[in-house]
Specification:
The protein is an all-beta fold and 130 residues long. 0% of the residues lie in helices and 49% in strands.
């Protein structure tokens, strides 16, 4: 069974850090693009960052650029999202998603669109207090 499991969420004060993990089971991340998304109450799910296995390319939403870093560990079949200098507006449920590289748009800026991803995790809550 294909599964994505997120972990690492929690409650942190503004300015603090968290590292989210996305572990895959039932498949490997080889030749996949993995994305991190978030959804705050009453808002649409939005893309945060993504990483492509084929070339290691990464992309970030403007709102997190310079604060968040996405990385992968193929040996552990896990993708991470290091989140530094967290802000209250980062509060959301964070989801990881995956899709085969060949199905993703060539323009990586479009890889933060929800519609491109076929596999999703259940999410992990991140709450940033002011």
């Amino acid at each position: 069974e294909v599964q994505l499991v997120e972990s690492g969420g929690g409650l942190v004060q503004a300015g603090g850090s968290l590292r989210l993990s996305c572990a895959a089971s039932g498949f490997t991340f080889d030749d996949y693009t993995v994305g991190w998304f978030r959804q705050a109450p009453g808002k649409e799910r939005e893309g945060v960052s993504c990483i492509s296995d084929s070339d290691g390319g990464t992309y970030y939403a403007d709102s997190v650029k310079g604060r968040f870093t996405i990385s992968s560990d193929n040996a552990k079949n896990t993708v991470y999202l290091q989140m530094n200098n967290l802000k209250p507006e980062d509060t959301a449920v964070y989801y990881c998603a995956a899709e085969k590289d060949y199905r993703m748009p060539a323009d990586m800026s479009k890889n933060l669109e929800v519609r491109h991803y076929g596999y999703w995790g259940q999410g992990t809550q991140v709450t940033v207090s002011s």
